[in-house]
Amino acid sequence: MKLSTRSRYGVRLMFELAVNYNKGAMQLNDISSKEEISEKYLSQIVIQLRLSGLINSIRGSQGGYLLAKRPEEITIKDIVESLEGGLDIVDCVEDQTTCKRSTICVTQMVWKKLSATIKETLNSIKLSDLVEWDKSRKQELTYFI
Fold first, then answer.
1. By C-alpha distance, which of 85, 84, 86, 82 is closest to 55?
2. Residues 90, 52, 9, 118: is their CA dihedral positive or negative?
3. Which residue ranges form the domains of the chain, and what is each CATH number?
């Protein structure tokens, strides 16, 4: 199983907005440059994040994007769910009608457990955690230089 680039890049975009929280709106070209992600691709990602209520956009020359909530209030699960449409590992976990064997399939329990663990883990990590981890990582690097 692999997470899509849409989600991976979406988390990185949200991280940049979290790092710059309360410093004003960020323009996509700045995020694109810092994270080395195509601005065109980011422009597609922000649409869904805005529709999900995770970011706000501001028009104009000083416009850009900013978090709709504090970094402590946004989980990685919120972001990934917004961009992936769900987190269940297989369709039958959420909707048993997608498989005629779902009522007798023992492996469905494996997929339910795995899906629950993924959701629990992503829900336990907030954008503010990423910001703190980044600060710690930078301090460690500075110590060795």
1. 82
2. negative
3. 5-144 (1.10.10.10)
d(CA 113, CA 32): 36
Torsional sign, CA 130, 134, 140, 143: negative
pLDDT of 145 above 60? no
Residue 35, CB half-sphere, CA atoms under 13 Å: how many?
24
Q: What is the pTM of this model?
A: 0.88
Q: How far apart are CA 5 and CA 83, in angstroms?
A: 10
Of 111, 47, 57, 55, nearest in space to 78 by CA: 55
- Give the tokens for residue 70: 């504090």
- CA 31 to mean position of chain CA atoms: 15
- Torsions phi, psi for 37 (to 5 deg): -125, 140
- Read off the pLDDT of residues 108-137 as tens digits, 9 standing for 90 and up: 888 889 999 999 999 999 999 999 999 988
